[in-house]
Amino acid sequence: MTPFEAIRRLETTLAAAGLTESRIEAEALVMHVLGMNRTALYMAWRDPIVSDEQRESLNALGNRRLRREPLAYILGHREFYGLDFLVDERVLIPRPETELLVDLALETARSMDMAGALTVADICTGSGAIAISLAINLPRAVVWATDISRDALEVASANARLHGVEQRIHFAHGDLLVPLSTQFDILVSNPPYVPKDILKALEPEVLREPSLALDGGEQGLSVIRRLLTQAARGLTDSGVFLMEFSPEQAEGIAGLAAIEFVGAQVGIVRDLAGMDRFLIVRTAHRARG
Q1: Distances (CA, A) of 75 to 20, 70, 72, 87, 192
Q2: pTM of the model
Q3: Do the beta carbons of residue 91 and residue 49 sit within 8 Å?
Q4: What φ, ψ does residue 84 adopt, rounded to 5°?
Q5: 190 touches 224 (CB < 8 A)
Q6: For residues 141 and 143, what is the distance between their CA atoms, to the nearest angstrom?
Q7: Do 271 and 256 contact (CB within 8 A), yes or no?
Q8: Contact at 8 Å (CB) between 149 and 89?
Q9: 85 with 128: CB under 8 angstroms?
């Protein structure tokens, strides 16, 4: 069997099951089984290189996808911010929109006039994608990352080793900022923010991800309320807090932030689709005394 034939067969099977990105996913699975990148795949496009064993592997992986297991879990990795991260059922799959949260954190860090090392903490780190992206792009920063899931921290630690920053990121197990005993210049978080009452209506693939990383409780704000309270105490006097949320939560979150961060500058940043997506709080504007 040729790669072309393998892809066409798998694409047809996935499309018949209603998977909208069947061609892209079929190519990804074939490249995974053959151990090829896209260039090598196309160079061998019509060569009969797919063995019987590889064909069986493709059938098995295709069946997992038909059961709506996320493609990233099947492949075992996901690209984020130009880096490759290990992912499995222990962690939320990094989303492209969260890359803008990293952009905002990097812009903030580079605008700060720091005499010493910048301190950054990623709260609800999951796979470690945010913390590791920041550590790589801010080589002088001291980075911490917390998560309430020990399983998630195992994945995050493995990713830190993969990218050579395991000595620069301090991982801490616990709820939000509770395991941290100091203040930070930048706090960044992509917390659970899906309202509990709509969880069951999400796509089957999303429901395969850890509920702990998705379930935001009532109105999706249960975790966020606690996070805002803790973050208000966890920032330095010139610190910045950055957080992702769902667009319909913007007004409520801005109001909660204004209450917790008295006198601080509270703003909302839109994503590339023009949707309200990120909270930014600057404590340099907070009233002192």
Answers
A1: 18, 9, 5, 9, 24
A2: 0.93
A3: no
A4: -100, 125
A5: no
A6: 6
A7: no
A8: no
A9: yes
Q: pLDDT digits over 156-199, tens only?
A: 999 999 999 999 999 999 999 999 999 999 999 999 999 999 99
Question: Looking at domain 78-283, which CATH architecture does it have?
Answer: 3-Layer(aba) Sandwich (3.40)
Distant-in-sequence, close-in-space partners of 212: CB < 8 Å, separation ≥ 6: 148, 149, 192
How many angstroms separate the CA atoms of 142 and 227, rounded? Answer: 21
Question: What are the residues whose beta carbons fall under 8 Å from the beta carbon of 7, sequence distance 6 or more?
Answer: 23, 26, 27, 30
Side by side, the strands of the sheet bearing 169-173 are 169-173, 142-147, 119-123, 184-189, 235-244, 276-282, 265-270
- Check if the beta carbon of residue 187 is closer than 8 Å to that of residue 242: yes
Say if CB 276 and CB 270 are below 8 A apart: yes
Q: Using one digit for the tens of pLDDT, what is the confidence trace for 239-282?
A: 999 999 999 999 999 999 999 999 999 999 999 999 999 999 99
Query: What's the Cα-to-Cα distance from 47 to each of 8, 38, 70, 138, rounded to whole Å?
Result: 14, 15, 29, 45
Q: Report which secondary-structure segment, H or E, holds 242.
A: strand 235-244
How far is it, in rounded angstroms, from Cα 68 to Cα 29?
14
